[in-house]
Amino acid sequence: MTTVALLHPGAMGSAVAAEIRRNGHTVLCCPAGRSARTRARAEELGLVTTDLPTALDRAAVVLSICPPVAAEDVAREVAWLGYTGVYVDANAVSPERARRIAAIAGSGGATAVDASIIGQPPGETSTARLYLSGPRLATRATARVVAGTRLQPVRLGDELGRASALKMAFASFQKASRTLAAVAHALADQHGVTDALLAEAERMPTRLLADRAYLPSVAARAWRWAPEMDEVARALDAAGLPAELAQATASVLTVWGCEKDEAAAPVARVLRQLHLHG
After folding, report:
1. DSSP 3-state assignment of 90?
2. Lower Cβ count inside 10 Å, N or C end of the chain?
């Protein structure tokens, strides 16, 4: 069995940790300096808590799942401590940043894997995919940790940055389209045409625009999605593609900072935040 260090168990990381433990592996975490919620999750999941140097000394694989803005700092800390195992960065970052993180981890002696998670946190009613790119032996070692779980490993090849590119491509639609739906509903509410908008949405080939009840969930996660859309913008710009939509989406998402983790908020309140910003 493999010992895995998870940095750090938020909502997605906790779900991933549960799948890894269910597979018979040991999962370590470092709750020092983390929020009370993070520490509580670790206890509930039965993770082995320790300090970072000890975790790195014991772990064959380190899995970084954190907000994009912290991804490089986490890699620097791990590199500074001289970790020489497999370092898996599974954060929503641009391909360029993913390669930079790989270089940081590699400077300490680690073998870096670029990874991305697409899907809801894996659990009894949901599954997700763990896309992997980078050195073959390292990606295979990572895949073995979650093989057969509700987090399906998918290898994308040896080139670092491909897993992050997929995440950016998917997020550029998924995050932006949900945000645009909120803006559309806010405009419809302003002019009293919401029922007509919903009727047109029902005629669309997908129900994305019709899923009005989902908008508070978008606002609740906007604090995480805005930095991700900044990363999408960087990825688009690096590819010579227009980045304005991603930049604008990030700007709209920052309006919902006060709705952090308020997934049960009324739809009307979430949409009103957009009007207040204007």
Report:
1. coil
2. C
Task: Characterize 91-117 residue by residue with b for buried, 16 or more Cβ atoms within 10 angstroms of its Cβ, and e for exposed.
Answer: bbbbbbbbbbbbebbeebebbbbbbbb
Q: Are 195 and 168 in contact (CB under 8 A)?
A: no
16-48 pLDDT tens trace: 999 999 999 999 998 876 677 777 777 787 888
Residues 111 and 163 sit within 8 Å (Cβ to Cβ)? no
Strand, coil or helix: 257: helix
What stretch(es) of the chain map to CATH 3.40.50.720? 3-160
Percent helix, strand, coil in the chain (nearest 5)?
55, 15, 25
Phi, psi angles (nearest 5°) of residue 87? -110, 115
Task: Give 3-160's CATH code, choosing from 3.40.50.720, 2.60.40.10, 3.30.70.120, 3.40.720.10.
Answer: 3.40.50.720
* Count of helices and strands (H, E) across the chain: 12, 8
Spatial CA neighbour of 116 closest among 147, 73, 151: 151
CATH of region 165-277: 1.10.1040
Given a contact cutoff of 8 angstroms between Cβ atoms, the answer to whether 89 and 114 are in contact is: yes
Alpha carbon distance, N-terminus to C-terminus of the chain: 55
Neighbours of 36 (CB within 10 A): 8
Considering only CA atoms, which of 116, 128, 138 is closest in space to residue 68?
Answer: 116
* Residue whose tokens read 């945000």: 179
Residue 205's pLDDT band (cuts 50, 70, 90): confident
Of 56, 114, 115, 44, the residue nearest 81 (C-alpha): 56
